[in-house]
Amino acid sequence: MRIRIVDAFTDRPFSGNPAGVVLLDAFPDDHWLQKVAAEVNLSETAFAHPLPPGGEADWALRWLTPVAEVDMCGHATLATAHVLHTTGRATGTVRFTARCGILSATAAEDGSLTLDFPTSPLTPVPVPDGLASALGCDIVGVHDTAAHIGDLLVELPDERSVRSLAPDFAALASMADRGVITTAAAEDPERGYDFVSRCFFPALGIDEDPVTGSAHTALAPFWSARLGRKELTGLQGGARTGLVRTALRGERTLLTGNAVTVIEGDLLV
Q: What keywords appear on the UniProt entry (predicted)?
């Protein structure tokens, strides 16, 4: 059984967000999936198997962190689509059925992939007690995405504030159902991105996720409303960074990026 490590939302190895990808004939028991995800020890490992032709989806897809299964994951979906296209298992648009519904990934001639994900609704909420202390930073405002991805979206004063964060991860773990998205407008949009973000998911065993596709289903409507454009580019990450191009389409958000396979080998158990 082949297993691959793919850097997603980047066109260069050793950047973006690495994901494990395992293609199966069918899903084995949950315990095995969780053991493999823990062994890979990346923010997510994707497991997928083909479905009979003629249905609403082509592949069944699941994502697991080292400690839990998640409802939505963008970078591991991009990584899976990359593996399917580069190995000849798929062409054009691939449809996935997952916990969050039907998703798709479409390959372009330039090698990029565009994911079609549901847009996350945003609800303004008061700043939770202890959040500013846990982040170590002033907060402009907070929105809740609990109805969808289960994150708090936290606007910070500026790009420098986002880049310099050194959070108290133990304190952040209790702040949201899934995690905390921090964001600010780009200091200089001429650098090729419109906003920056960093994402923290200590409750899922992931202190910081380098490039989080699912977070951009909330970041896209947030920044589109403020910047007055439906198509934007986000830069995410601390030590590792990646770019996500977003296009807001009402109840759907398109996420475009590249991916690079960096490791391929055999899973022996």
A: Isomerase
Residues with catalytic function: 44
Token couple for 197: 């973000």
Residues 6+ apart with CB under 8 A from 108: 114
CA 130 to chain centre: 26
The pLDDT value recorded for residue 56 is 97
Please return the burial class of 151, using the count of CB atoms within 10 Å of its CB with bins 0-12, 13-18 and 19+. Answer: buried
What would the CATH number be for the domain defined by 123-250? Answer: 3.10.310.10
pLDDT digit string, tens, across residues 116-151 = 999 999 999 999 999 999 999 999 999 999 777 899
- pLDDT tens per residue, range 13-63: 999 999 999 999 999 999 999 999 999 999 999 999 999 999 999 999 999
Instruction: Give phi and psi for 174, each to the nearest 5.
Output: -100, 5
Q: What spatial distance separates the first Cα and last Cα of the chain, rounded to whole Å?
A: 9
* Contact by Cβ (8 Å): 74, 91: no
- Position 3 scores a pLDDT of 98
Q: Say if CB 263 and CB 116 are below 8 A apart.
A: no
Classify domain 2-118+255-266 at the CATH superfamily level. Answer: Diaminopimelate Epimerase; Chain A, domain 1 (3.10.310.10)
pLDDT band at 210 (very low <50, low <70, confident <90, very high): very high
Helices within the chain (DSSP H only): 30-40, 75-86, 131-135, 159-163, 169-172, 216-227
Q: Check residue 147 and give its pLDDT.
A: 74
